[in-house]
Design goal:
By secondary structure, the chain is of the alpha/beta class. The chain is about 50% helix and about 15% strand. The strands form two sheets. It has an eight-stranded mixed β-sheet with strand order 3-2-1-4-5-6-7-8, with helices on both faces. The N and C termini lie far apart (about 50 Å). Belongs to the 3-hydroxyacyl-CoA dehydrogenase family. It is an enzyme of class 1 (oxidoreductase).
Amino acid sequence: MENLAVIGGGVMGRGIAYAAALSGHQVLLQDIQPNALEKATSFIEKEVKKSIERGRLQAVEAEECLSRIKFTTSIEEAGMQADLVIEAVLEQMELKVNIFKQLDDVCPNHTILATNTSTMSPTEIGAQTSRPEKCIAMHFFNPPHKMKLVEIVRGLDTSDETFNKAKQAALSMGKEVVEVNEFPGFVTSRMNCLIGNEAMNMLMEGVASAEDIDKAMKLGLNHPMGPLELADLVGLDTRLRNMEYLHATLGEKYRPCPLLAKYVKAGRLGRKSGMGFYNYEKNIIGVQKV
């Protein structure tokens, strides 16, 4: 699994690419938007610089890490020599299926195709290819180069060999692995979406402020981040897509909070837009009015 391709240069894709390069993999990061690749390059260079300043990387190691990452807008170039491809695009089934079909055409026969989906079916995605036994989900967490967990989710036809190779790839990046039998939402997203959605309902109902809801979860239940802070970090548009998928597949208890839909319609998407349940503009953290 020496050569790794990552499809999608956003927050998750660039973080996975960086984590893989740090662990010695040759990485090709692909995105159709040159601007996304420019942002990914800048992000990775800043992370490397911070690691040097904090003594986590030596200058030589940093240089070697950066030399292992290449960038392309061509999905053909990304897949043609890859041993493992990790797709990290938006949580939209049609988009993921389309990418997997393209990868199936251009990748060598031995290539494993993994999706970084947090909720969707690797069986459904893999069934659209000629290699469902080589399709799997590898769910990294944000930020991928810092968070330790990877959920590895088997599809119906995923082979033991594919699972073992995906697991080894994750372990080689310094990650801890949990094996999950496919079901919508897997383990973490299913639980996390429920907690976050209930926090949004409580905020909408006036039970407590966003700051106090988050504070209660951090100090009372020892969560490292409050559920509303975490939703802002993930992106409220991403969380809404997750909730809509889980609502469609698992039923009424996953109906998205109306406040979440309202914020997304208003363009309040969390940290990436500067405003969500908190205001991040000009580095001023303050709670927004419901």
